[in-house]
Design brief:
The chain has about 450 residues and is of the alpha/beta class. Helices cover about 50% and strands about 20% of the residues. A hairpin with a 4-residue loop joins strand 2 and strand 3.
């Protein structure tokens, strides 16, 4: 048998290996992982019984979203190749995924732990959000429905804030860098008056984990963390938690919720203003009432102790004493006047002239009584004479009226009438038809 060189043998083995094991998927545990300064990754995977050296070249490693470490169980997708100088075969990895967990999730967990350890999530470093932001930068896609949702909510809640769009990619390989750039631009932007934005809202609507992945990238986390302007992360739906949510100063469950967090409720503010006005009016009214009451009290105390008030009191006392004196004098004068009147009346009653006048009056009274009595007697006697005269006139036969009683056209006497007889009474002037109802005899 003709001998061959070591190189020739290695070439034959290399040819056989690479042709037979073009693509393999191997599962194993990581050991001795080395990220070389050249940009390549060297590591070993093993199981209970054996191990194999592996390598991943820089071109493929740059696409890796996570780093492997000692003890990780991974799936290595690649080809078997022989390293000619030492006659060693290696598994050249084209892609690596965690075993039992997705690569994206693995990268997410690793970056989350790393950033947490660096203090990116510390609450003490979170910047407070402005209560009444005047200018807000929105970092999202101009064509996204999330943008319209945010503007619609903003228009309902608060109309005094101006919004400025920083149009950016929100998915794809270049999205993370573009988002980070737009966040930095918004943070550094200055208006003519030298002021910047009061708030930055970075986000997008819902989607798959891959669609949202740009907000899980380290470059976005760095841009949010380094921003001097408060940042709200508003990505996906309420169940979606991104790295940007943990780094941002405030997480919003949805883009619409970001506006609810960022902007005050106009109706609530108006209600608060009404309450404050009512409270102000009540409190000021109460203060003014108390001050007015206190002022009136001081005024009363001042007036009560003023010289004018004391003089008025003295003058009032003098007036009262004066009135009391004059009232007493009038009372005494009235008593004396009444007493003098009594004495004068008694003197007049006992004087001879008054007695003569009294007797004259009594004589006049007796004279009048006599005359009245005489007139009364004459009046009575005249009435008696008139009564006798009237009686005489009535009994005078010449003046008595002649009456006839007719029954059955015959003149009869009164004594001839019987009960139920119908008769007529006739005089010179009248005729009366009558009926006898009852006959009574007079003794």
């Amino acid at each position: 048998m003709k001998p061959i060189s070591v190189t020739a043998l290695n070439n034959q083995i290399k040819s056989i290996l690479e042709s037979h094991f073009q693509i393999v998927l191997v599962e194993g545990e990581v050991s001795k992982a080395i990220y070389h300064s050249s940009g390549h990754l060297y590591f070993v995977i093993k199981d209970e019984n054996s191990s194999i050296s592996c390598a991943m070249w820089r071109s493929n490693l740059s696409k890796m979203r996570f780093k492997i470490k000692e003890g990780d169980k991974i799936l290595v997708y690649g080809a078997v190749s022989l390293y000619m100088p030492r006659g060693e075969y290696k598994l050249i990895a084209q892609n690596i995924e965690p075993s039992g967990i997705g690569a994206l999730q693995k990268a997410y967990e690793e970056l989350k732990v790393e950033l947490k350890n660096l203090g990116y999530f510390d609450e003490s470093k979170k910047k407070p959000l402005p209560r009444f932001p005047k200018k807000i930068a929105i970092v999202t896609s101009a064509t996204a429905a999330a943008l319209q949702d945010m503007l619609r909510v903003a228009n309902k809640r608060w109309k005094l804030t101006k919004f400025y769009l920083f149009n950016t990619l929100v998915q794809g390989e270049e999205a993370a860098g573009d988002i980070a750039l737009k966040i930095k631009m918004a943070d550094e932007f200055r208006f003519e008056d030298g002021s910047g934005f009061d708030l930055i809202i970075a986000g997008r609507g819902g989607g798959s984990k891959e669609d949202l992945w740009a907000f899980n990238e380290r470059v976005v986390a760095d841009a949010i963390y380094e921003a001097k302007t408060p940042v709200i992360s508003a990505v996906g739906h309420e169940i979606d938690y991104l790295i940007s949510d943990f780094v941002a100063d405030k997480r919003a469950a949805t883009p619409s919720n970001a506006m609810e967090i960022a902007l005050p409720d106009g109706n609530e503010i108006l209600m608060n203003i009404d309450e404050m006005i009512n409270s102000f009016n009540y409190k000021t009214g109460n203060i003014l009432y108390k001050k007015e009451k206190s002022l009136n009290h001081l005024k009363e105390v001042f007036e009560a102790n003023s010289i004018d008030k004391k003089l008025d009191m003295k003058l009032e006392n003098i007036k009262i004493i004066k009135n009391r004196f004059f009232n007493q004098m009038r009372f005494v004068l009235n008593q004396k006047t009444n007493y003098m009147e009594i004495l004068r009346n008694e003197f007049n009653a006992l004087s001879p002239q008054n007695r003569v006048e009294k007797i004259k009056k009594e004589i006049e009274i007796l004279k009048m009584q006599f005359q009245n009595s005489l007139k009364n007697k004459i009046f009575i006697k005249e009435n008696e004479v008139n009564s006798l005269k009237n009686a005489f006139e009535m009994l005078n036969p010449d003046k008595r009226e002649k009456i006839e009683i007719i029954k059955n056209n015959k003149k009869i006497k009164l004594s001839d009438l019987k009960t139920d007889d119908v008769f007529e009474i006739i005089n010179t002037k009248r005729k009366i038809k009558s009926k006898v109802l009852e006959i009574t005899s007079k003794d």
